[in-house]
Amino acid sequence: MVSHSTLIIRSERQYDDVEYLIKYEPNCTIDIEFSGVEFISLPDKMKGIRIRKENGVYRFDENEEHFIKASSCIIGVSQFDHTQDRISDLSLEYDKILLTI
Fold this sequence. Notes:
This protein is an all-beta fold. The protein has strands spanning 7-10, 29-35, 39-41, 51-54, 57-60, 67-69, 72-78, 96-100. It is built from no helices and 8 strands.
């Protein structure tokens, strides 16, 4: 699949009848979408994410080994199903943009 140097990290979908430590909109996912990606160094699993940008590099938490070199990052909420994403279909829009970094 052609990605146009885009990476999407997607949360699990949350459901009304399940208790979560951090709760967000039910039946939605949160996507962290990076564009202009040049390099990725991430762990297999992440639990809770804090992102900061330093000189064109997005760093995760306090671990200097986990970072993405990219030109932009947006965090959006959507009701896309597991087969939908903005890499495959650029006409899709997030229900809400939480943050642009």
